[in-house]
From TrEMBL:
Gene name per UniProt: CYTB
Gene Ontology BP term (one): mitochondrial electron transport, ubiquinol to cytochrome c
Biological source species: Helicella itala
Transmembrane segments: 9-37, 57-75, 95-115, 121-147, 159-180, 210-232, 253-284, 304-323, 335-353
GO cellular component annotations of the record: mitochondrial inner membrane; respiratory chain complex III
Lineage of the species this protein comes from: Eukaryota, Metazoa, Spiralia, Lophotrochozoa, Mollusca
Protein name per its UniProtKB record: Cytochrome b
Domain of life (superkingdom): Eukaryota
Length: 358
């Protein structure tokens, strides 16, 4: 398909995400051949995989670190969409992309529970128990998710089943995502779909994508071979023990921004609502349709808001990894407010620019 001549390296990330998704599915299937979803044998099956299965440790560390690489790339991909306002140019593509993001978060959370280490067990207990904040239905929902009155064998079975199935659902949405993308074609750094010059995708962008794949592979396998436990919590090297609570319970790094938002609100129900809105609000960006179709590159105010939003996201991620104590809670509260206010200001600034120009 002919593509704009001036698209930059930021347009490589989508294809990198496709490769990473395929890698996660393949390594996940290989891991499932040796995994045992049984409370008494799950942790030992992981040890057997790491120590006794030929190249088993490589498969598992590629899968675990590949999830971190996937979310790093998906955050960069969404950041590109926000900066160049793809949610206005291609709203259907954006909405399907947000759905892929939410399904990926669900898949990653389910997978984090499967090793049945201390942090896996207590992370599942704390996060699923948040459903109890929902009025009237909360306790019933928690019991339904657990399959009982605590995290148990039924919980592990259903988490394993859904973790295995959801990546294939994500693959379907990826195809829909590409279908909508090809309906109008790629945007460009000018924030427009009206291209003056296009060139064939192959060989120009094929070679560019291959370079992106090589760089991604170099980073991923450097982590796998030299720091395979870089993103692993030390608590997860111990088998799950319902009688011993870890000092500091936290999710994986790519969920920490939402975890910081949850902790910053004293009300449990308010925290759960804010947690949900921190990701669901992405669906509302296409409502800015008609406000602006100008790239952030042409608006200094939008650039300031965008980069301050990125800094806020990074700070919330750091605060989510800090202990639940002062001053970290107080610091996260104004950042949480800013996290929700900036998108509104971002869209308004684009509307003001369009009004000034036209």
């Amino acid at each position: 398909m002919p593509s704009p001549l001036n698209i930059s390296i930021w347009w490589n990330i989508g294809s990198i995400l496709g490769v990473l998704l395929g890698m996660q599915i393949i390594t996940g299937i290989l891991l499932s051949l040796h995994y045992t979803a049984d409370l008494w044998n799950t942790f030992n099956s992981i040890i057997h995989l790491m120590r006794d299965v030929p190249s088993g440790w490589v498969i598992r560390t590629v899968h675990a670190n590949g999830a971190s690489m996937f979310f790093l790339m998906i955050y960069l991909h969404m950041g590109k969409g926000l900066y160049y306002q793809s949610y206005i140019l291609q709203p259907r593509t954006w909405l399907v992309g947000v759905t892929i993001f939410l399904l990926s978060m669900a898949t990653a959370f389910l997978g984090y529970v499967l090793p049945w280490g201390q942090m896996s067990y207590w992370g599942a207990t704390v996060i699923t128990n948040l459903l109890s904040a929902i009025p009237y239905l909360g306790d019933s929902l928690v019991t339904w998710v657990w399959g009982g009155f605590s995290v148990n064998q039924a919980t592990l079975n259903r988490f394993y089943s859904f973790h295995f199935l959801l990546p294939f659902a994500i693959s379907v949405f990826v195809l829909i995502h590409l279908l909508f993308l090809h309906d109008k074609g790629s945007s460009n750094p000018l924030g427009s779909l009206h291209h003056g010059t296009k060139i064939p995708f192959h060989p120009y962008f094929t070679l560019k994508d291959l370079v992106g794949f090589l760089v991604m592979g170099l980073v991923l396998f450097t982590v796998v071979f030299f720091a395979p436990n870089l993103f692993t919590d030390p608590e997860n090297f111990m088998e799950a023990n319902p009688m011993v609570t870890p000092t500091h319970i936290q999710p994986e790094w790519y969920f920490l921004f939402a975890y910081a938002i949850l902790r910053s609100i004293p009300s449990k129900l308010g925290g759960v609502i804010a947690l949900a809105l921190s990701v669901v609000y992405l669906y509302f960006f296409p409502l800015a349709l008609g406000l602006s179709s100008m790239s952030t590159s042409f608006n200094i105010v939008s650039q300031y808001l965008f980069w301050s939003y990125v800094v806020t996201f990074i700070l919330l991620t750091w605060l989510g990894a800090c202990p639940v104590e002062e001053p970290f809670i107080s610091l996260s509260q104004p950042l949480t407010v800013y996290f929700f206010v900036v998108p509104l200001l971002y869209m308004v600034s684009g509307a003001m620019l369009k009004k000034a120009l036209f």
